[in-house]
Amino acid sequence: MEFDPFSVEFFEDPWEMYRWLRDEAPVYCNERLGFWALSRYEDCVAAARDVETFTSTKGVNLAQLTQAEFGELAQSGDLPLLIMMDPPDHVRMRKLVSHAFTPRRVASWEPVVQRTVGRFLDDLAGVREFDVTRDLAGPFPVEVISEIMGVPERDRQPIRHWTDAMLEVEVGNPFPTAEGIEAALAMQDYFRALVTDSRRHRREGMLCDLLEAEVERPDGGRERLSDEEVVGFVILLMAAGSETVTKLVGNGVMTFEEWPDQRERLKADPTLAASAVEECLRWRAPAQYQGRWSLREREFHGVTISAGQPVLLVIGAANRDERAYVDPDRFDITRAGPTGITFGHGIHFCIGAHLARLEGRIAFTELYRRWPDLQVDLEAVQYVHMANVAGPSSVPVAV
What is the spatial distance between Cα 370 and Cα 374, in angstroms, rounded to a whole number? Predict the structure, then answer.
């Protein structure tokens, strides 16, 4: 079998291919596309921890990792991104932005999430059919993160459409589309202007908190983020904070239709929503792989990955590894065992993971509270084709 992250199989039904990878080619090399892949849970965790061997500085998806000029651009500092930093830069940046994501602050955002999800569901009152992605999972997460950030209401949905365009790829083509490049430039221009305006006019929201955040240097001095560092972090947070939750909710509703016994358990006991979110993240990860670049040799299972190679940590496969989970191909919202590595592992664990979990918990709880008999037309589900993001673009339901 071939693991091709630009194929229809990868976007829509990769599970048998993943099983083959784990069992037959746990250290997989695709010579045609020029990359290596690790697919077992233990190996993905080990590689994520080994930042001395596997760097994040040369890109996070295969298209970026196979373009040498992208790695040079990522390291040039024109638009620094936390997700593409290694220590010590990563440590400094993470300290500065982590103040905005303490457990207490995330908990304080629950009313924002509750109100936002409720508003979109209120708009659907009285309808008999709607699309979970189009009418709820697509638009609400960007509203949440935008309100937290302090982005004006009129600009929030255009940001979502820019993000979609940035991530969209054509089947078989690893490179960004012309529309995606245009959207990326538009988003950079927008947030540069917003940061400049926020420097001049203090407003409520995390953006101004980031502009004022300080961390102590080793020499005892204090330093703040540069404007470009704030722009890079905000773009990353807006994109990841919207797309991850969009795919989590769409994937979850689709999966509950496939496993109605688990849906009934959730409806009977809404306190299971938090563990249901964890199982949905394990079952169908919104991001199926994380990209790295090997800086030196590393051996797995008697196979050596040499230096200077793109390496994919296929977390979508690792989350179904029978070496880590009991009966991993069973969807079980009360599952015990290791937490899935959908949000990464080690220093690059997703800083917004707790917010995404909060949004997923409230979305599932409210959706099935209002429409306990919701039914998904599984035959009509459509999937996105995006750079290392996976999930449905359309989930039609009847209520």
Answer: 9
Q: What are phi and psi of 115, to 5 degrees?
A: -65, -40
Surface-to-core class of residue 310, CB atoms within 10 Å of its CB (0-12 exposed, 13-18 middle, 19+ buried)? buried
> Has residue 3 been placed in a domain?
no
Residue 141 predicted with pLDDT over 90? yes
What is the length of the chain? Answer: 399
Least-confidence region, from 12-21, 102-111, 290-299: 102-111
Question: Which residues constitute the domain of residue 50?
Answer: 8-398
* DSSP secondary structure letters along 183-220: HHHHHHHHHHHHHHHHHHS--SSHHHHHHH-EEE-TTS
Which CATH number goes with the domain that contains 128? 1.10.630.10
What is the 8-class DSSP label of residue 101?
G
Q: Is the pLDDT of residue 214 over 90?
A: no
CB within 8 Å of 53: residues ≥ 6 apart: 47, 294, 295, 296, 298
- Beta-bridged to residue 168, according to DSSP, are 386
- Interatomic CA distance for residues 203 and 208, integer angstroms: 7
Please state the pTM of the whole predicted model: 0.92
**Integer Cα distance of 236 and 66 in angstroms:** 21
Instruction: Check residues 284 and 239 and name the one with the higher pLDDT.
Output: 284
Mean pLDDT of 34-59: 95
Query: What's the pLDDT band for 70 if we cut at 50, 70, 90?
Result: low
pLDDT (tens digit per residue) in 266-303? 999 999 999 999 999 999 999 999 999 999 999 999 99
131 in any annotated domain: yes
Contact between 283 and 331 (Cβ < 8 Å) = yes
Strands (E), the chain: 27-30, 35-38, 54-55, 129-131, 214-216, 222-224, 290-294, 298-300, 303-305, 310-313, 375-376, 382-383, 392-394, 396-398
> Which residues are 233's β-sheet partners?
none
User: How far is it, in rounded angstroms, from Cα 180 to Cα 174?
Assistant: 12
Tally the domains of the chain: 1
Inside any domain, residue 268 = yes
**Domain assignment present for 1:** no
